[in-house]
UniProtKB/TrEMBL annotation:
This is Uncharacterized protein, isoform B. GO terms for cellular component: vacuolar membrane. Keywords: Membrane, Transmembrane, Transmembrane helix. It comes from Drosophila virilis (Fruit fly). It is found in: Membrane. Its main location: membrane. The chain crosses the membrane at residues 103-125, 167-191, 203-220, 227-251, 263-287, 299-325, 350-368, 388-408, 414-434, 455-473. Residues 1-26 are annotated as: Disordered. It is a multi-pass membrane protein. One of its GO terms (molecular function) is L-amino acid transmembrane transporter activity. Residues 73-473 form the Amino acid transporter transmembrane domain.
Amino acid sequence: MTDNKAYTPDTEPAGSNEVPGSSSHLPIAPPAYTAAVVPLNDFNSKANLTEKDQLSLEEAAYSPFDNRDPNGASAGGALAHLLKSSLGTGILAMPMAFHNAGLVFGAVMTLIVGFLCTHCVHILVKTSHNICRDAKVPALGFAETAEKVFEYGPKAIRPYSNFAKQFVDIGLMATYYAAACVYMVFIATSFHDVINYDLGLKWDVRIYIAMTVIPCLLIGQIRNLKWLVPFSLMANVFIVVTFAITLYYMFDETLDYSDKPLLAPAAHIPLFFATVIFAMEGIGVVMPVENSMKKPQQFLGCPGVLNTAMITVVLLYTVIGFFGYVRFGDKVRGSITLNLPDGAWPADTAKLLMAVAILFTYGLQFYVPNEVLWRKIQHKFNPERHNIVQILLRTGIILVSGGIAAGIPNLEPFISLVGAVFFSLLGIFVPSFVETVYLWPDRLGCCKWKLIKNILLGVFSLLALVAGAAASIDEMINPKEEN
């Protein structure tokens, strides 16, 4: 890991052991350096160390990993969280993404986008580890990492440290609260299709959305990431079963490749990128998961938690997207499970299991924005009332989310917009920009290749933002008839 000879912030002394805005109970960092009293008869070289040398020795001695919570999550629990955060409703939309991209272009670009997303997460976590060592704090969240990098960066950008933190925080809250609305719609629609068909009912989907709010109110009250591990593990099992059933129906007939384009019309390509980026990016969950680990050194590296999770995710996305589009063609719908035959018990089982899996995922998705929001407002309330305030706050947000879901039961174009805008910014642009600031000016590699690489990533994210947002807004204004 590269040693960072960064500036110390103007407003905060080096060696501060406070994690800005952190609400977690983290061990206190080692005390600041205190000069030792040197006996008069000690004339060896150690007594002649300069203050700068002593400070360097102190910085080298501090390890954020040694100051983490020893009762934190295991590597297996972290892997379960990452898999669950990425294997949500997005993977079910991959056949539709391939419909907007074509077989060859979709397969190749899914692998490339997966690699880019993994790389951006990697550089964000690595930068966070480095800045934790420089600031002498055990762990930092996504927004706090951006803030500290600016604080310890070149003097010209230090005044913008709070803006960097607020930008990330607001982006995370907007993205994950919107995703929570989509989760409600997906769960309700799955139960609506199965129950209405099997029982001959004609209940509106909004009735099912109202019923979905009830379990969301319960799981949304969980405030400890470690307690969500059992839900993630069960959700992963349900997803595996659902995928097995879906694969059965995908291959129950001879696949016809002849009528599927290798490259879709250019006008559809932005929707493909918006869907894939939204589906793959779990950037908001990454730092809470990494911060919760008792052995964070197992997160990066080979194989590592991150690489294992992302390789699994990318392969599953490619397989489901490619063969799902080949099987159902132009009739493919926003979720591959909606293409499964109505009334068949294996298909109904797949729809219901996936709905329950997404319900269990709701707690993890809801955790991220609430942690951000609570850090911003907790100081306004008496500590003795924090518990009741949290209960009321979470209940109110879930009820509002349910109201939005009921008011707009088809949120697919809106979520494509959110994915194009926020995930392209938070998942690609911000990590590459933060790494550039941290390494500036003389640690950007030979011929400043890291700067060139990050500029290309930034351009790609902005193109995905503009094109994806334009295509999503066009879908809202001029919705296409469902096949």
